[in-house]
Amino acid sequence: MNNNINICIVDDDEIYQFTMAATLKAFNSIKKIIAFKDGLEAMDFMLDNLSNEKELPDIIFLDINMPVMDGFQFMEEYVKIHPKVGKKIIIYMVSSSVDEVDIERAKKISQISDYIIKPIRETQLKNILGQLEEDGKL
């Protein structure tokens, strides 16, 4: 498995951030994990590193409900900068919301690869990483 995967967690729940990071660190393929408490922090990071492929994440796990800038607002901004991003970034919207409105809204955004309902289990993460590698996306 690719040993140079950068992961970004965008979620205001510090416990979720901690458990996701701890679970991801168990995979040998993860090089770096960065976390942001809201979409604005994550967007600022993206804008600061647009042409720095080594710093940009390969995968983003994006929560919907956050203060300052929520996941959908982040995606509105990401769609605008997407053509300038120096690499392919795979985005998963992750939420405890099972509301069909949220799920359908996420599905309509082509840059979102999938909608995952929290909590994400270790086996799910392993399957996601394995499938991405198998598909040649990592």
Automatic annotation (TrEMBL):
- The yes or no answer to whether the keyword Phosphoprotein is present is yes
SUPFAM superfamilies per record: CheY-like
Q: This protein is called what?
A: Response regulator receiver domain-containing protein
Protein's organism: Maribacter sedimenticola
The residue stretches assigned to a coiled coil in this entry are none
User: Which SMART domains does the entry mention?
Assistant: REC
Q: Which Pfam families match?
A: Response_reg
The segment(s) forming the Response regulatory domain are: 6-133
